[in-house]
Write a structure and sequence with these properties.
By secondary structure, this protein is an all-alpha fold. The protein contains 16 helices and no strands. InterPro entries: HTH_67 (IPR054058). This is SalK.
Length: about 290
């Protein structure tokens, strides 16, 4: 029996994860990896997010990232590891996180007791995570915790993000949604990535997107206008509920009071970062 209010863990995650993700939209990551010789933005993303697993090949990344076209992944992996080692990429990613957070939050917040408190709470939550059947989380859990509070908070965000993400992939598989069907149905909720961003970053073509829409219509999940049907809304809701159940442990470990406080702090940091232009204006929406 959960001791937390309904969806408290999800709300907390939804406040922490976007700030963690800002590094992947930041020019700082491209600069740091460009100095290592990784100039392609797709190669940079694959390397930065998978480096914790070591010099993995395209199969591992396609499996653990789920919604990328394997051909795009194979275009860059394992070749990127001949340019820079995983450890060099991890070091560059942390430097990019440092410059990104300083730019978006400002030095006053970076040095604040509130950010140090959030880091402590997020790391305590992460102590409740489990490694089994969670490859991206488990790889990041083997990394050292940075000493600086803002980087410790960012690191904890990686742990909580990948822990929930690994569980979410299991829910997608159970629901019978393939990688592009998962993207299409998420975008149809109005909370997912704009189709233009999906096609530009995930390696799919418009024909692939349209074919996924047809498959979802065939299952009664999408209507002729591309909106979710009642069954589609129900499926997406159950996906999130299933993910919540598989991701409950860290927030149960932290406890209701800690989750409430961490969510409050995280929302404040996220608002500041978003106001500073952390995300592209056209990133989200149905297009």
């Amino acid at each position: 029996m959960s001791t937390l209010p309904p969806r408290a863990g999800r709300h907390c995650h939804n406040a922490i994860n976007p700030l963690h993700s800002t590094v992947y939209f930041s020019p700082g990551l491209g600069k740091e990896l460009g100095e290592l010789g990784i100039d392609d933005s797709n190669a940079a993303y694959f390397a930065a997010r998978s480096a914790a697993m070591g010099a993995v090949g395209p199969g591992t990344v396609t499996a653990t990232f789920y919604n990328f076209n394997h051909d795009l992944v194979a275009r860059h992996l394992p070749a990127v590891w001949s340019v820079a080692s995983p450890q060099a990429v991890l070091d560059a990613r942390l430097r990019a996180a440092d410059t990104t957070l300083r730019r978006l939050l400002g030095e006053e917040i970076i040095a604040s007791p509130e950010l140090a408190e959030a880091a402590e709470l997020a790391l305590r939550a992460a102590q409740g995570c489990t490694r089994h059947a969670r490859p991206l989380y488990a790889a990041h859990a083997d990394l050292p915790v940075p000493k600086e509070p803002h980087l410790a908070y960012w690191h904890a965000g990686a742990l909580l993000r990948e822990h929930r993400g690994d569980g979410h992939l299991a829910a997608l598989m159970t629901a019978g949604l393939d990688p592009l069907e998962a993207l299409v149905s998420h975008t149809a909720t109005g909370k997912g990535m704009n189709p233009r961003w999906v096609l530009a970053t995930r390696g799919w073509q418009r024909d692939d997107w349209d074919a996924a829409c047809e498959r979802l219509r065939g299952r009664g999940l999408l209507d002729a206008e591309g909106e979710l049907t009642e069954a589609g809304v129900a499926l997406r809701a159950e996906l999130e509920e299933a993910t919540d159940r598989m991701d409950a442990a860290p927030y149960e470990h932290l406890g209701a009071e800690g989750v409430e406080r961490l969510t409050e702090l995280a929302r404040g940091f996220l608002f500041t970062a978003a106001s500073a232009g952390a995300f592209p204006d056209d990133l989200m929406g149905k297009g």
